[in-house]
Amino acid sequence: MTVKIFIKRKVTPESVLELTVLLKKLRSLTLSQAGYIYGETLKRVDQKDECMVISTWRSLEDWNAWIANPERIAIQNQIDKLLGQKTEYAVYEV
Length: 94
Description:
The chain is of the alpha+beta class. The chain has a single domain (3-93), classed as 2-Layer Sandwich (Alpha-Beta Plaits), CATH 3.30.70. It contains three helices and four strands; from the N terminus they run E-H-E-E-H-H-E. The chain has a four-stranded antiparallel sheet. A hairpin with a 6-residue loop joins strand 2 (36-43) and strand 3 (50-57). The chain is globular, with a radius of gyration of 13 Å.
């Protein structure tokens, strides 16, 4: 079963450059993960400080393997520290 993951973050203008670097690192790791199909990053029109990543995975198991990846966790912890809050995840079945 294919799943889509909605990843929501609040971004301050001061954090944009450093966040971009961290997201590029995360994206490059994601591309080599089993089951990863596609991802896109969206910027909310009516709330400039919010962005959404929509990530598509072959299966929930593939997503769960990625979410448990130690390299991903290390980068994600840096992102959460930079933004001052936890990233929100929502998993949907296609």
